[in-house]
User: Fold this.
Amino acid sequence: MRVTPLEAWIASKIALPAGQKCNLQAIKAYQLEKLRETVAYARAKSRFYGRLLADFDPDDIRSVEDISRLPFTYPEDIAGYPNDFICVSPQDIWRIVTLPTSGTTGKPKRVFFTDDDLELTVDFFHHGMTTLSDGSDRVMIFMSGSKQGSVGDLLVKGLDRFSCTGIVYGPIYDYEAAYKALVKEKITVIVGIPSQILALVRTHPARDDIAVRKVLLSADYISSAAVSAITAAWGAEVYGHYGMTETGFGGGVECQARHGYHLRESDLYFEIVEPSDGCRVPDGCYGEIVFTTLNRKAMPLIRYRTGDKAKFFTEPCPCGTVLRRLDHIAGRIRDNAKLKDGKVFSITELDEIVLANPSVVSYNAALETRSGYDCLVITVQAADTRESAAKRLEEELLKAVQRLTKDQIRLEIKTVDAEHFTPQVLKRHIEDKRTGCL
Ligand SMILES: [Zn+2]
Assistant:
């Protein structure tokens, strides 16, 4: 097994002298310097951080741990005052990404990048993708890429740096057409959104005529059900990537051990905090992922609350790297549905149950009001839409989901065919359609 290529990449980024092996102390020293610079820069240049950090002296950051004395930045802050985050003049803004704020009816978030900010991402994509591909591969990207500076565009640029062919297909609307494209283009590596690639596999389980050997899933929660189904059907190795627009698209990628993410630690500083009080939790304990950008110019983010739940491993990675390793995302902190006894469950828990059924192509979940009661409505796109098969699937799912919700909420499961199904694509969540009247 090869050590993650991110180790050598980070060693060069933090300017370790040639021959000196990458080590955590050197990474921490680099991060400390960059954290100080970022705090001073953001405080001086952005209106938001000028206000938030008015009383804070960047020289008071004497260790990377001292960053935890700074206040958090929330998605709502970006949605509320996007322009107040900008640190550069308008002509230096190269790309603006507008994102819906999931689970709330609030304003969309806007994230700004300079050309240099995007170059950092291309560089990460270049080195990260060498984990699973080389110059002989043909990579199809089932994510948006038509605009300059979009994730697909940046990935193609990164792949091109090691002579690897990247082809942007875009999000999938027609699984038959997407499968034909894989065959026609002799694709060996796929990059896509978990729910879409699972649906592609479930609608085309036989793989006689395709050459896909590796799949990188990104942009949303990766269920173990999806990983197992893709591996079983196509025999492909499945890798995970963790990142979001706010991290500059890229965040961390699995090595060949495929057991947690190595992070883009030269560009991002990650912490795990207890969601309720914001205190940092020790490695090995679950909490909310929080990150600070270290090199971003248009819109640095300081202690940004991602809403994603995970932990750092305490054991070294089987690949042998000195880099830290973030566990798979265990769910979301917000966007949850509440049961009668106060317990919550999320789309990520539903994914593990609903997607484990091989007859499910895709599904959506919503909380609705039925006769004055909360009802969880699960709409499933089924692989087999014949009436008897659909009925059997509905019964199986009802039993399986009941084990999670334990009769604390009414359930309704309905199967529909592809024509009547509109999948949620990015950041899938349990949609709240309750009327609130009893
Ligand atoms: Zn590793």
